[in-house]
Amino acid sequence: MSDKPDLSEVEKFDRTKLKKTNAEEKNTLPCKETIQPEKEYIQTS
């Protein structure tokens, strides 16, 4: 048995059959108003 993985199926893969998708950002960063109370809490602890 070889230590190298079998890449024969990967070499045959046809990228043109993939569907196009639009990536949407799902995890937005919190606003400053949300961060500030948490910062104050951490500093007072």
Topology record:
Elements: H1 8-12, H2 32-44
Low-confidence spans: none
Question: SSE string, helix = H, strand = E?
Answer: HH
**Cα Rg:** 24 Å
How large is the share of residues in beta strands? under 5%
Count the DSSP helices: 2
Distance between the termini: 57 Å
What class do helices, strands and sheet pairing give? mainly alpha
Helix coverage percent = 40-55%
Mean pLDDT: 88
- Total count of strands: 0
Q: What is the general shape?
A: elongated
Main sheet makeup: none
Highlighted features:
2 helices, 45 residues, elongated, Thymosin beta-15A
Walk me through this protein's architecture.
It comes from Castor canadensis. It is a single chain. This protein is mostly helical. It contains two helices and no strands. The termini are far apart. 0% of the residues are buried.
What's this model, at a glance?
40% of the residues lie in helices and 0% in strands. It is mostly helical and 45 residues long.
